[in-house]
Amino acid sequence: MALRIAVAVAGGYCLAAAIVSLGAYALKLSGMARSEAVVLSAMSGFVVYLLILLWGFCETSLRRLLWALVVLPAALQGIVYVTAKALAGGG
Amino acid sequence: MAGGIRQSMQWLHTWAGLVLGTLLFAIFWMGTLSVFDQELDRWMMPETRFTLPAHWSLDEVVVPAVERLAQENAIIQWGATLPDERRPYVRLFYQLQGGGFHSARIDSRNGEMLGDPQTLGATGFIFPFHYRLHLNWLGLGYWLVGLAAMAMLALLVSGVVIHKKIFRDIFTFRPGKSLPRSSLDMHNLSAVAFLPFHFLITLSGLIIFIGIYFPGAADLVYAHQANPGAAFFAEAGDGFSRPPSAEPLTRHVPLNSLVERAQSHWRDDVGFIRVFNHGDASAVVQLGRSVGGEISWNIDKLFFDAGTGELLKESVIGSMMTLQRFFVGFHFVQFEHWLLRWLYFIGGLAGCAMIGTGFLFWIQSRQKHHLRENSRSRVLVGALSLGSTLGLILATVAFFLINRILPPDAAFMGWPRAELEVAVFALVWVAAFVHPLRCFAAAARQLCMAIALVSSLSVIANWFSTGETLWISIDGAHWGVAGTDMMLLALAGSAALAGGALRRRALRRAMPALP
Fold this sequence. Notes:
The complex is a heterodimer. Chain A has one domain (2-87). The relative contact order of chain A is 0.18. By secondary structure, chain A is mainly alpha-helical. The termini of chain A are far apart. Chain A has helices at residues 2-29, 34-58, 62-90. Chain B is α+β, with helices and mostly antiparallel strands. Chain B is 62% helix and 9% strand. The chains are: A mainly alpha, B alpha+beta. Chains A and B meet through helix 1, helix 2 and helix 3 of A and helix 1, helix 5, helix 8, helix 9 and helix 10 of B.
């Protein structure tokens, strides 16, 4: 049970944060002003996190939970990290 | 989790409520009081109990005060929040050459400094407690509040899901029934009736801190900048800056004339002024629009050249940022509307009642079960719930009382007066967690009586320390002081009634045991 809570709260946050970061970047690529993209994405992040939390506490399969809230956030955060590095390096 | 969504939600609701209830009650209680933070400040800082003069001006009041400060140490920038009906003094901040930031308060009647307030007051203690719990290490307070706020949203949703007859419950209150039933009714009543308010006030509270809770978005989108977070805020707020020229400023445009131009431009008041590169030929005067006129907490700014008065820039923010500012203003309730301010206060109290009765229901519904076990967990949860609800209220009124009792310049073991007030708050709160460990029922009664006593004493201490009785406050139109006194008396009255009811029940219970 402790594992489930930790996964839902911490893993859920990492997933929401990754979606917010990538969402902001995607909005910027789609032509929205940079600052606007950041604000819209971050504001939506709380609702995204809430939905992830609720799902995390209802999902019966621990396996699916670990995939969605541990492996997926790790992968997405990896993409965020690599993209940010590339952007910083590219000036 | 077996048993379907409703059971999972029930589980989530019970345990998130129990574990984070203490935090949630503290955040709701402090937030509710923060609705009237300026009024509480007038009560706690008697030197600020004066009426804003009908005519006062930046050039006559603020500029001479800043010049006096600048004669002692070179000032590189300063800013001032202008006084209003609720806060009649000017709140000044200034940065000295070499970096240090300082703050001061200027009397709007004569331009004199008001001196050290010797208290954090409501704006310095209660309001920051609401969003960062005064835990500044690693921003821990912000993250705990954020976690509690997310839990609050999850509790509201799960609370709705576990309800079978949500609309009927709005109209159901059975105070005469057995206790678990009554407190559950009260829990549902306060939760369902105020559901939209509680959801939006929590969500908007989170949205204020997008930069803290989701810093990754700006870090990625502004990854090419040296400091992505700062670059984002500069761009989102559409600021303006230019480097100092190292030449002295030779002529000054009167600030009053800039204020008049800004007022006619916005058809609204100016709320904030900031001067960059003070005394330098490239000095910039930034005027910020007042936030009192509309719900949205605008960040409209005009930038002028301090020498010529030329308009350098008008900030324009995007629609998403405007939406974010709307949420911020909705949460901060700084717009001028007394009826709405009272409704926020009532909504906040309803939130406190919801959390408190949630605790109560948990304890009562497990009472029979635990009587058999005589379990330690019930004692612990009982102490936790009493300490976090009644205990926090007692600590708050003790904070008010000690503010009116401590003499000026009081200090103890190197702690200045302002910190002593906080120490008393902390001591009383801790004691209120420990005390109920011995006897839950007696402690509830005693805490109620203590709240009644300390609240009434606070009102009396205000009379004695300032000579300002309730009728003098009302007569002098010191509504903040009069309102605080009346609210303290109302709290004393209701706590005494609750304590009395608890005592009668205890006596009734004890009766059959008598020979």
